[in-house]
Amino acid sequence: MRRNLGVLRRGPYDPTCRLTEDAVWRATRTPAGPATLRLTETPAAGSPGVRAEAWGPGADWALDRLPALLGADDDPAAFVPHHALLAEAHRRHPGLRLIRTGLVLESLIPAVLEQKVTAEEAYRGWRLLVRRHGERAPGPRDDLWVMPTARDWTRVPSWEWHRAGVDRKRSDTVVRAAGRAGRLEEAAAMPLPEALHRLQLIQGIGPWTAAETLQRSNGDPDAITVGDLHLPRTVGYSLTGARNVDDAGMLELLAPYAGQRHRATRLIALAGAHPPRRQPRFPVGDIRRL
User: Fold this and answer.
1) Mapping DSSP to helix (H, G, I), strand (E, B) and coil, where does residue 213 land?
2) How confident is the model at residue 276 (pLDDT cuts 50, 70, 90)?
3) What pLDDT does 270 receive?
4) Could you give the CA distance from residue 260 to residue 224 in angstroms, rounded to a whole number?
5) 214-270, pLDDT tens digit by residue?
6) Against a cut of 0.70, is the pTM above it?
7) How far apart are CA 242 and CA 237, in angstroms?
8) Where do the DSSP E strands lie in 70-212?
9) Torsion angle defined by CA atoms of residues 217, 207, 87 and 50, in that order, rounded to the nearest 10 degrees
10) What CA–CA distance (Å, rounded) separates 148 from 133?
């Protein structure tokens, strides 16, 4: 459960998610209002179960959709490995499930913040903006926050984006997306091609951002990320040993997994085969100093 839901956590200090020794805490903004979920694994014969508690106006909405959030709609049996590494990873991780939140904007905004910057910069911006313009999550914890409403995202002043280290291009994209939140949320119920098209109608949202969003909101097993700095090289090195594979090469290697390409990349990541680093890490920027 912790690993499957971990894709929703934006860094170790994400104010909308807390991992404790015995539970996963998640704060979310549902169509019915803010909600907090506390999820704990419970022993059961054959496989563990999950116990859920919820608070806030959106509690019923969140509980109704809990099975999808935990991956109940996913079908790992549909994956047929064609490489030894993927066969072994599939065997070693039978509990891997692709989760589905049903909430597009919640995953889209942090994905936009992650465009063209380091993860550290993006996580910092998300944390500062949610704490500054969101609201405390309902329930017993005082360190959980719910992200701003779509309307409140459009009202964040320019200097607040700057203080959070978010440049004008990314902030404008967030504002445009928030202004069309209703249409974007419809993508959660669309087939993948139509959902990708709907998101990319917004200026500033390309294939990378759309796929990263729909992997979480829709749980689509074929939502492959293209335009990533590291993924093509990781896939190429894992499957062939080549170190300089680009997007085209990655898509060619993953062609046998059509319909399951996102799952294939998740399993490759879990296998832990990464090409040796030959270049220095991308420097962490901070536009707040400008």
Assistant:
1) helix
2) confident
3) 94
4) 9
5) 999 999 999 999 999 999 999 999 999 998 999 999 999 999 999 999 999 999 999
6) yes
7) 5
8) 135-136, 145-146
9) -10
10) 6
What pLDDT is stored for residue 279 in this prediction? 58
CA angle at residue 185 from 10 to 200, to 5 degrees?
A: 80
First to last CA, the chain: 42
- Rounded Cα distance between 282 and 151, Å, is 34
Residues in the chain, how many? Answer: 290
Nearest to 103 by CA among 139, 147, 140, 133: 147
Closest listed residue to residue 250, CA positions, set 262, 267, 265, 232? 232
Closest Cα to residue 39, out of 28, 29, 30, 31? 28
* Alpha-carbon gap, residue 234 to 150, rounded angstroms: 35
Amino acid residing at 122? A
Written as one letter, the residue type at 29 is R
